[in-house]
């Protein structure tokens, strides 16, 4: 009897210590991850306010000798960042519109509608995820040149839509699995057709999923460099990533302050979009993990 008492007495204490150690480890790891993410942004922001001599002659983590907020206006005007942002928007948003429209409709057809061959069709879309975009750039370049659209933004729009459509269809199909089919069966009994069931019932029910998929695809497309570099042979059509790659000052010398100011405009702009829509993204991600 006496040998069992210490076990009952000290076991909860050992469990509490183990739990406290586990929590401390998690907090330390989270702190390290936050520092890895935040410190480069702080350094980038400080560098964007420095002059060239300040950047080259002083320590990387030193504060700017003079806080040159004019670097941002220089990047926007002299560096043509405004033009590059506009070109990116003109390439990204039409691609997103096509992706979400086609992906949502395909997900509805593959998961809600019952027809022969839908599982095989889904496998075909999944196979598209395994095709690297690098393999199709040269054939697409030849096709776009022969079609006479190589000097426009259409090659970017078409390539982004085709390359990202398999992922969009797969994600929307996953989200549609959480939608109860009884809703559509009841709508059919009430006389609703396929189009009405799609627009009036399914789209409102997966709106958070559409927003989530749209943001995921937005970041993929906005941060693309390879496709944009391949199909934009005119500086007036360059996207933000190509513009940052070719960012040079007068006489070809790199102006580091305006360069990092342009990078800050790109990075913090997309970060603000994510922070603004963060809650809806979380709802969309968790919505696809629960089957109704």
Automatic annotation (TrEMBL):
The chain crosses the membrane at residues 24-46, 89-110, 122-141, 153-176, 197-222, 256-277. Pfam families: BPD_transp_1. One of its GO terms (cellular component) is plasma membrane. Its main location: membrane. The lineage of its organism: Bacteria, Bacillati, Actinomycetota, Actinomycetes, Catenulisporales. Belongs to the binding-protein-dependent transport system permease family. Residues 85-277 form the ABC transmembrane type-1 domain. It is found in: Cell membrane. GO terms for biological process: transmembrane transport. It is a multi-pass membrane protein. Keywords: Cell membrane, Membrane, Transmembrane, Transmembrane helix, Transport. This is Carbohydrate ABC transporter permease.
